[in-house]
Amino acid sequence: MIRKFVIGLSALMFAAGCTTFDPVTGERTPNRTANAAIIGAIGGAALGTLAGGDDRRNAAIGAGIGALAGAGIGAYMDNQEETLRQRLQNSGVTVTRVNDSQILLNFPAALTFEFDRSDISPGFQPTIAQVSAVLRDYPQTTVDVFGHTDAVGSDAYNQQLSERRAQTVAGIFSQNGIQNARLYTRGFGKTMPIADNSTDYGRAQNRRVEVFISALCQPGTQGCPRR
Question: What is the number of domains present in the chain?
Fold first, then answer.
């Protein structure tokens, strides 16, 4: 059975950011201060972890998805990040480089879902199709889809809503040709806010779906996500 894992970095990553992006030059540079703060806050325990660990990695490799190794990991993810930035420019989806082997996409609910709904807004379909196309072009990755809500409503209701939203996005990826062995979904309800739930703006930020794209590589490879 695939072991479940809770990624606890989301709030920290959005609050501080892992890279900075110059809109004039188009260049991305590491935000070393932010990265140091993140690593210090979590003690390095979860950074880069592959949800599901070896069970999931083995299932993906068993499905015929090749594993990356060595210096090729960083280059592969660099190219994928650049492609995502180009295709998602002005879409409202943010692209964050977490580390050498992982990229984070943030789908704000204002773009993806109507209030209290879990079906994708028609206007977002072209954007998610673009993401799917990139994921098809870079198959040596796993795709973790995490749903989040604001604090309005009960814990149980928000948990279910976040799960449905994550499953909806993953389902569209699957329909667009992404192998199920690469996909993993989880809902976090209202437990991982990235903004103040006491304001309309903050609640809008907290309603989101996060997509972590992680390099699929052999255990023990330098830069490979850990168990």
Answer: 1
